[in-house]
Amino acid sequence: MSRRNGQLGERLIELFNALQRRETTFGQIYAMFASCGIDARRVLADHFPGGELHG
User: Fold this and answer.
1) pLDDT (tens digit, 9 = 90+) per residue, 17-40?
2) Is the predicted pLDDT of residue 4 greater than 90, yes or no?
3) Which of 9, 20, 32, 50 is deepest in the core (most CB within 10 A)?
4) What is the pTM for the complete model shown?
5) Which of these, 3, 17, 12, lies nearest to 38 by C-alpha position?
6) Contact criterion met (CB below 8 Å) for 43 and 30
7) What is the reported pLDDT for 55?
8) Can you state the angle between helices 26-35 and 40-47, rounded to 10 degrees?
């Protein structure tokens, strides 16, 4: 499957699967977002509108 999806695709699939597991910690998810080049803060801000980013 990695030949078709590439390394980034594989990491995104792993991230999606981790998001489905309740035991996955926020820290693990945050690190997985970073490994995919995604700003987890931006995703959370978009997911929970009304909050503000500080920092």
Assistant:
1) 998 999 998 899 899 999 999 998
2) no
3) 32
4) 0.67
5) 12
6) no
7) 55
8) 120
SS3 32: helix
- Which residue type occupies 30? Y
Rounded CA-CA distance 21/1 in Å is 21
* Integer CA distances (angstroms), 35 to 3, 23, 48, 49, in order: 19, 20, 22, 24
Place of tokens 């980034």: 8
Of 55, 11, 54, 7, residue with least CA distance to 29: 11
Mean pLDDT computed over 41-54: 72
